[in-house]
Amino acid sequence: MAAAIDRRLVSSWADNPNELVEGLRDAYPEELVAARTLVKAHLGSQRQWRLKAQSVRDRQLAGLMDRRRTSGSTRGILALRFVLMAALIALPVSIAATDRENLLKLVLAGVACFILAVVGGHIITVQARVPVMPAIRGAWLSELREDVVNATLVAILRSKGILMEARTIAAAERGIESIRSASQAVATLRD
Q1: Domain of life here (predicted)?
Q2: Which terminus of the chain is more solvent-facing, meaning fewer CB atoms within 10 Å of its CB: N or C?
Q3: For 72, left (φ over 0), alpha (ψ -120 to 50), or beta?
Q4: CA nearest neighbour of 179 among 153, 145, 154
Q5: Buried (b) or exposed (e) across 68-107, using 16+ Cβ within 10 A?
């Protein structure tokens, strides 16, 4: 899903709504409703779709996590996390206990803790060697979903024997083709 989003974000065709696709949507509102209904029936709500994607990712990473557990590296990572948490708690607590009046010292300790959390978290993530979950923004996911709706709309119109221009079909199916291409590229990388 993240690869499909990335591919869509860098594609010039996705910068603005396509007039041909918008015209098709406006011309067939009942079929558009049917397309949205079909997409919702198969993918669920946007939240459900995101949760399904997360469960797929979790299943893909299950083997990796089992290997890490067997090798004992997860214990080391857990120890590093506890050390980081202790350091993040100990510094401000020690300053608050010894020098409550010095607000500047406490603020500087807060800034230092923030920097330590970011840098330490990064180091622990690198040590864990677990792929980081990519950002999947709701608005970007909506764009992918609309690509699926567009392709479904074309399929519904074809099934009803409604003739459309080839360039309108190509524009409406461009998004789903981009999703398929990203999916195939990710599958190739995983093999």
Answers
A1: Bacteria
A2: C
A3: left
A4: 145
A5: beeeeebeebeeeeeebeeebeebeeebeeeeeeeeeeee
Token pair belonging to 83 = 């050390």
Q: Which tokens is 173 given?
A: 């199916």
pTM of the model: 0.69
Whether the CB-CB separation of 14 and 176 falls below 8 Å is answered with no
For residue 27, pLDDT beyond 90: yes
Q: Categorise residue 102: left if φ over 0, alpha if ψ from -120 to 50, beta otherwise.
A: beta
**Confidence band (pLDDT; 50, 70, 90) for 23?**
very high
Distance CA 20, CA 165 (A): 9
